[in-house]
Design brief:
This protein has about 100 residues and is an alpha+beta fold. It is about 30% helix and about 15% strand. The longest helix has 14 residues. The protein is elongated, with a radius of gyration of 18 Å.
């Protein structure tokens, strides 16, 4: 089975222009989350960073292919594109209902 993840930047640089590593690490360092994975794609360049651990116990380091339970967060993510025409006043919610 092919790897579903995009190819990472071949020259990772935590101090890169996106500041992705620093941003994720700040949340981990302040204790908001035990670990995080972030992905930024710009054209053909993909930057993937993983920081922290997979759980609060620190049992294993976070990896770029760590599995997360997203629960019901998929509902608003799925609904958001449907409201783009509403936000650009191309569609009225009144016309739908």
């Amino acid at each position: 089975m092919p790897n579903p993840l995009p190819k990472p930047d071949p020259n990772p640089n935590p101090g890169s222009a996106s500041g992705l590593h620093d941003l994720l690490k700040a949340y981990v360092d302040e204790g908001t989350v035990p670990g995080a994975v972030g992905l930024v794609a710009r054209g053909d360049t993909v930057e993937v960073r993983a920081v922290g651990t997979v759980d609060v116990e620190g049992s294993a380091p976070m990896a770029r292919d760590s599995i997360f339970r997203i629960a019901s967060i998929s509902k608003p993510i799925t609904a958001a594109p449907g409201f783009l025409p509403v936000s650009y006043t191309q569609l009225s919610l009144a016309s739908i209902f």
